Amino acid sequence: MQDIANAIVAGQPGVDRPASIDLQQEYADVGIAEVLDELDRELVGLKPVKTRIREIAALLLIERLRKRLALTADAPTLHMSFTGNPGTGKTTVALKVASILHKLGFVRRGQVISVTRDDLVGQYIGHTAPKTKEILKKAMGGVLFIDEAYYLYRPENERDYGQEAIEILLQIMETQREDLVVILAGYGDRMDTFFASNPGFRSRIAHHIDFPDYSEDELLAIADIMLRRMNYRLTPAAREAFIRYIGLRRTQPLFSNARSIRNALDRMRLRQANRLMADLGRTIGIEEIMSLEASDVLASRVFSNGDADRVA
């Protein structure tokens, strides 16, 4: 295989290329290993997502080397679609993707501009184009993350101006793809409908990545990470109650994975603070200030069906 590669190189006059490249050294030099390690540390689970990001990083590292060796090819299409329920890490992964693209030289800046429909679509004639172009100008050289992208166009509203924003985006995604990466995000089924009605988007998306919901064990691990960062801990009884909480909360409407866990912890901290302040005439220690008790969990409306009475 190396002989074939050397023959190809030798057969192209005027090109001075090395006979071999130390891939491990190249991988270390660009600094993407640190970003990928951060992705593993900061996000629980999501194995298929992390695997796909590593595959994309490998492709781009090789493309970077091919460009240096003058093995010319069309620039890879880097626009992406992230599908999944809320709170599954899509925004965090977009930030890591931007950092990888920047370190490998595929975008000039490692920034992510996160927007929704309201940032792009105007409310009257002549308002949408300048809004969309202003956002694109701000995002140029980096990554534009469009959350709930399926809201861009509402065909049921004949006075909707979202189609104008879509047309501008499609044009820029094609003509400026070497200077801007667009990531569309949202619920999987709604994104499928959106792509079906806007085939121009699907044809420009190279990487479709689905973000699975977290399991109960993964949600508990996420809670532990959040509590550690906030310098709180669950007592054994509170941990048992919170495991029950997770199991019940996952079955209820509007559950948003890690986002719902963070909200639950915030409410538990609120209850703990009020519990401690209820008795001002005593001295408390640091362990008590750091500890969340079972009562801080069980006061949740999730247990309002009477199940709370059976939790220790």
Structure in a nutshell:
This protein is α/β, with parallel strands linked by helices. 54% of the residues lie in helices and 9% in strands. The strands form 2 sheets. Strands 2-3-4-1-5 form a 5-stranded parallel β-sheet, with helices on both faces.
Question: Quick one: how many beta strands?
Answer: 7
- Tell me the strand order in the biggest sheet: 2-3-4-1-5
CA distance, first residue to last residue: 66 Å
Strand portion: 5-15%
What would you report as the Rg, rounded to the nearest angstrom? 25 Å
Helix content: 40-55%
Please give the count of helices.
Answer: 15
Helix and strand run: HHHHEHEHHEHEHHEHEHHHEH
Largest sheet, in brief, is:
5 strands, parallel
Shape: globular
Averaging pLDDT over every residue, what do you get? 86
> Uncertain segments of ≥5 residues (pLDDT<50)?
1-13, 306-312
Supply the helix-strand structural class.
alpha/beta
